[in-house]
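User:
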Amino acid sequence: MRDTLRRLASVDALRGCTVALMLLVNDPGDWDHVYWPLEHAQWHGCTPTDLVFPFFLFVVGVSIALAIGPRVEQGADKGVLMRAALQRGLRILLLGVAINVLAWMIMPQAHLRFPGVLQRIGVCFAGAAAFAIYTRPRAQWITIAVLLLGYWALLLAGGSLEPFVNIVSRTDFAIFGRTVYLIDPVSGRGHDPEGLLGCLPSLATSLLGLRAGQWLREQNIKALTLAGIAYLLLGFAWSLVFPLNKNLWTSSFVLWTAGWATLALVLFHVLIDRRGWPAIGRRFGVNAVTAYGGSELMQILLLGLGILDPLYRRAFASWITPMAGPYVASVAFAIAFVALWWLIVYAMDRKKIYLKL
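Assistant: Predicted structure:
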């Protein structure tokens, strides 16, 4: 086996491109004018935007395989590794909660929300790390199968996949109450796309990344490619009876998105690590949590201080909309936002500043 303790530029680049896309889809100038590929599916279905978060959780697993896997094989203290993973996962989770609390405190008409993107990343990081430290590949594959089949059975037993009445929404609402992402004004029920129950299939996404990371360490590109194709075919076939749904993180969605993520990993590895192409996105990748968390804080502050709307109208909409329409003005703001954060992470990389939680 060809071991690799060094950072692979392809993995940093894939992580970074994913973070850049997160910023692009999260920060349009005008939410009423967003091109459809930059929007999530209303409920069932999968748009390009719906691939972004699963890609990140998949790369979490890949990174764990590259960073923790070799240490386990070299006999490192498993208790020490696990404590470090739990502490990092907790820090990521608490950062997500802190950002949500800040938004509630300063943004007009915002309500307190406890679940969130960083919270799910923290949980999946700690969970996937535990499997990397304490289990063998066979146990990991069995866990993936149990999570996906068990989650399917659970949702079927819940009686409905419709918004607010499915078992995922009902469970999260029972646990978190009105601190979920969305409350239905008619029924009073709640739903959160990053709630607690959805962490189960999301962990399966990270575990598939963990297995992909091991194949990458072994330079087994054939296995990676065949796995990516197999995931896509299985995910598509399963979606005929269990629809693709990012809000519920359905089992078919796990396989479908993992298929694309696996093939993207192959493409990035071959082009960057083997053929020497530029590692576009790497600077976002080496400061991923900083870029995502910092951009969320910036957006909250701009909204809370009443700066965002006049900034968009004067600097973008006032002259772009008459020439090219409101959709172009909206996406131009999002691109400028990503460019601003690229300058920030570029400067950090030049100064060798890498903030880790």
